[in-house]
């Protein structure tokens, strides 16, 4: 049993007379263009399923600007914000495969994913006055991600256990690489036909985008923030549920934590990104539903505790020089 699918998508859009990165700069016209091609092939044997996939995505935009430097108090005339080489190298390419084997009471899946991302430099140009770019918004960047994963789905009488482990290696340059082991576990126990209890724990990883990692404006306002690290996320949940013919109710307790949260900072009409410390949310949700032939009654109650701690370095202008302030904030909300 074989399967094959192909997907192709292309778009081109234009916007005129819109506000750009700041209210002082009016983008008289912005053009967006994107293309996507995806392929997938699979084969099913009696107990084994094999799947391989690849997709290639390209995106580019170009903006004409009436006055490209108004936000810093200088009138350099009309210009544009565009990618170097017309964004010809902007792309994201993903490929991978997975193999799934079904046993009597166990489904085992192993796989590999590869992702490559590249972007040309995003430049501010005033060709009538300057032969070279006036500033660089995003530097030329390339990033590689390699992922190996395993997942199992096990059914044993009243138990169902779904487990997984993912190894991720991210390479953004000779001195900028990272690797993570990301576990996941879900267990569900069926007490009887009406009652179940479930436990979940999982970790995730969010790489910074090129915009979050590469905004420079080093010769205008902000220094480069190429040290932005990836976010790591951990979630724990415990849930209990009862269901009967006319009503059901359940309670869910959770804890959510983000480490090295990527924080946007708005300064001088430009957004810069830095890692703060941690964000934690915990609480519970209680809900019940009563069903009758002519009406349904729903009720819920929730409690949320939010803890936010950040330690940021904010650039500021002082007598023509860029200095920094350190800001530490701790918030506990219930």
* Number of H- or I-type helical stretches: 1
Mean of the pLDDT scores?
79
- Number of strand segments: 19
Estimate what percentage of residues fall within beta strands: over 45%
Broad shape: globular
C-alpha end-to-end distance: 55 Å
Structural class assignment: mainly beta
Q: Enumerate the spans where pLDDT stays under 50 for 5 or more consecutive residues.
A: 19-25, 217-224, 314-334
How helical, in percent, are the residues?
Answer: under 10%
N-to-C series of helices and strands: EEEEEEEEEEEEHEEEEEEE
Largest sheet: 17 strands, antiparallel
Radius of gyration, rounded?
26 Å
Question: What would you say this structure looks like, in words?
Answer:
About 0% of the residues lie in helices and about 70% in strands. It has one helix spanning about 210-215, and strands at about 1-20, 25-45, 50-65, 80-85, 90-100, 105-120, 120-125, 135-140, 140-155, 160-170, 175-190, 195-205, 230-245, 245-260, 260-265, 270-275, 280-290, 295-320, 320-334. It starts with a strand and ends with a strand. The model is unreliable at about 20-25, about 215-225 and about 315-334 (pLDDT under 50).
């Amino acid at each position: 049993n074989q399967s094959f699918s192909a997907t192709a998508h292309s778009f081109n859009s234009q916007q005129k007379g819109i506000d750009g990165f700041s209210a002082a700069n009016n983008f008289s016209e912005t053009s967006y263009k994107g293309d996507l091609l995806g392929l997938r092939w699979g084969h099913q044997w009696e107990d084994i399923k094999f799947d391989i996939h690849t997709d290639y995505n390209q995106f580019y935009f170009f903006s004409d600007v009436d006055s490209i430097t108004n936000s810093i108090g200088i009138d350099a005339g009309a210009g544009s914000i565009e990618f170097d080489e017309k964004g010809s190298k902007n792309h994201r390419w993903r490929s991978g495969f997975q193999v799934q084997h079904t046993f009597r009471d166990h489904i085992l899946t192993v796989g590999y994913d590869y992702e490559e991302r590249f972007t040309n430099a995003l430049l501010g140009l005033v060709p009538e006055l300057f032969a070279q770019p006036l500033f660089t918004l995003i530097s030329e960047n390339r990033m590689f991600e390699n992922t190996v994963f395993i997942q199992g789905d096990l059914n044993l009488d009243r138990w169902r256990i779904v487990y997984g482990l993912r190894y991720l290696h991210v390479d953004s340059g000779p001195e900028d690489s990272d690797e993570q082991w990301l576990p996941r576990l879900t267990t569900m126990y069926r007490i009887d036909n009406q009652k179940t209890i479930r436990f979940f724990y999982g970790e995730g990883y969010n790489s910074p985008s090129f915009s979050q990692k590469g905004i420079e404006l080093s010769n205008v306002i902000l220094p480069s923030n190429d040290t932005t690290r990836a976010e790591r996320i951990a979630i724990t949940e415990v849930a209990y549920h009862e269901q009967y013919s006319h009503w059901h109710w359940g309670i869910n307790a959770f804890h959510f934590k983000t480490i090295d949260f990527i924080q946007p900072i708005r300064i001088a009409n430009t957004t810069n990104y830095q890692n703060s410390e941690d964000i934690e949310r915990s609480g519970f949700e209680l809900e019940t539903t009563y069903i009758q032939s002519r009406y349904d009654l729903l009720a819920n109650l929730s409690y949320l505790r939010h803890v936010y701690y950040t330690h940021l370095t904010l650039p500021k202008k002082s007598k023509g020089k860029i200095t920094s302030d350190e800001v530490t904030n701790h918030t506990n909300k219930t």
